[in-house]
Amino acid sequence: MRTDRVALAGLAALGAVVSCGAAAAHPVRAVYGGALYHDVPLANSDSGGIEEGPNVQAEIQFESPRVFRYVLDPSIYVMGSVNTRGDTSFGGFGFNWKFHLTPGWAIEPGIGYVVHTGELDIPFPRGDPRNRAFADENILFGSRDLFRLTLGLTRDFGQRWSGQLYYEHLSHGQIIGDGRNQGLDSIGLRAAYRFRAKDGSKL
Asked: What angle do CA 168, 172, 177 make, to 5 degrees?
């Protein structure tokens, strides 16, 4: 089944990347997990509400190499997101920053790259009566490679735990793809457990 292939491929890819990260001696900074409402309809969007969910998501953040301290010390992450209804799942990597607003509150913007299991375009020729039904049931991403833009509003609960209201957008932006670009917006809640402080020290 498609869902089984997605799960196995995601686990294999995540395991490979995590192993490479550990081998490169970049210790884990934090782990995140949660569920997102998949394909949220937003204003000025030509998609939304086509696919269903939720998506179950996991993310591991690593300490960044010293060279990245000159760009506000992001975490490097690897992540996977599996749709519970068999729709679009995806996985990838990127950078995440954390900026404190007040004691206990922070925003976490991020940018990354993912590959996904969704549809790129309508597979039927023009005039085929199946076109409309296919478009109504699938997001047409236009590219297998997508940017992942994220923003989290984070509430810390002590040094180790935090909760997060999380927004995520996937699209190719006519940069790493062209043509179709309906994109995907998701909103949900995540929890995080931190192993290390921003200076790399153990908590």
From this structure: 165
Question: How many degrees, rounded to 5, is the angle at CA 21 between CA 18 and CA 26?
Answer: 130
Distance from C-alpha of 125 to C-alpha of 102, rounded to nearest angstrom: 55
Decide: pTM greater than 0.85.
Answer: no
The pair of structure tokens assigned to 60 is 């591991």
- For residue 5, how far is the Cα from the chain centroid? 19
Residue 203 located in a structural domain: no
Q: Which amino acid is at 140?
A: L
Q: pLDDT tens digits for the chain (203 residues)? A: 444 444 444 444 544 454 444 434 568 999 999 999 999 987 555 567 888 889 999 999 998 888 887 788 899 999 999 999 999 999 999 999 999 999 999 999 999 999 999 999 988 888 888 888 888 888 999 999 999 999 999 999 988 999 999 999 999 988 887 888 888 999 999 999 998 665 556 66
In the three-class reduction of DSSP (H, G, I as helix; E, B as strand; rest coil), residue 46 is classed as coil
Domain limits for position 67: 2-194
- The CATH number linked to 147 is 2.40.160.20
